[in-house]
Amino acid sequence: EAGVAQSPRYKIIEKRQSVAFWCNPISGHATLYWYQQILGQGPKLLIQFQNNGVVDDSQLPKDRFSAERLKGVDSTLKIQPAKLEDSAVYLCASSLRDRRRGPGNTIYFGEGSWLTVV
Amino acid sequence: AQRVTQPEKLLSVFKGAPVELKCNYSYSGSPELFWYVQYSRQRLQLLLRHISRESIKGFTADLNKGETSFHLKKPFAQEEDSAMYYCALSAGTALIFGKGTTLSVSS
Predict the structure, then answer these.
(1) What is the DSSP letter of B50?
(2) In 10 A of CB B99, how many CB atoms?
(3) CB-based contact (8 Å) between A79 and chain B?
(4) For a FRET experiment, which of A15, A27, B19, B85 has its CA 20 to 30 Å from that of B35?
(5) Which residues, 6+ apart, have CB-to-CB distance to B95 below 8 Å?
(6) Residue B107: its pLDDT value, please?
(7) Which of A42, A98, A110 sits opposite B93 (nearest CB)?
(8) Quick check: A102 and B86 CB within 8 A?
(9) What is the DSSP letter of B27?
(10) Do A109 and B97 lie within an 8 Å CB cutoff?
(11) In this complex, which of A4, A42, A99 lies closest to B93 when CB atoms are compared?
């Protein structure tokens, strides 16, 4: 079974520029998550999709971050304009369905997209 | 507030020694707790979850609601256990992670 795919793996941009990250979840997974992981901290949820609808975007800085999941499969996370504090690893994850309890609903993570803003 | 605390940034042990990675949580409801692991140059992956009550790679974790803890334990550490370990709490629709503990096992 193929895992969660993300691209690009690494990106360096100047502040005030824009960047976009792409994620392809595991086939058949209805729920998709974007997490931000700043160096030295644990992952923090930015946004959660259930199919192509947003379930939770309460921690997404909406003045500069946007995300979409067209057709309920692939997703794109965009940052515009970027700030120095956006330097982080952006993790995409997916699960078979939303976060209901049970051992069958494991969340699988991608390798992450490393962003450096200079 | 919902929060996960991992008090140790780094835990260094010798091969064969017992390991305990501490995790405390704050949650008003009935929690679901997890341990995730990230080996060098690999993606974050689930190690175990409290409701499964299983032992994975020799690791176990027991949920203690009285002490609001979910410590990860292994009686005899192996060098291949060296990794970053994150404790996480399910808050309904999302996972809340601790800051992580780096486990270093040396021979």
Answers:
(1) G
(2) 15
(3) no
(4) A27
(5) A43, A45, A99, A107, B34, B88, B89
(6) 92
(7) A98
(8) no
(9) -
(10) no
(11) A99
How far apart CA A115 and CA A21 sit, in angstroms, is: 10
What parts of chain A have a pLDDT lower than 50? none
Domain definitions of chain A by residue range:
5-97
Kindly give the parts of chain B with pLDDT less than 70. Answer: 92-93
Q: Which two tokens stand for residue A80?
A: 């515009």
CATH 3.30.70.120 fits B3-106, yes or no: no
Which residues in chain A touch residue B98, judged by CB atoms under 8 angstroms apart? 42
CATH architecture assigned to A5-97: Sandwich (2.60)
Determine the Cα–Cα distance for residues B95 and A66; give it in Å rounded to an integer. Answer: 20
What is the reported pLDDT for A100?
58
Instruction: Please state whether beta strands B10-14 and B101-106 pair in parallel, antiparallel, or not at all (unpaired).
Output: parallel
Residue A101: the pLDDT is 55
d(CA A33, CA A59): 12
Is the distance from CB of A115 to CB of A7 less than 8 angstroms? no
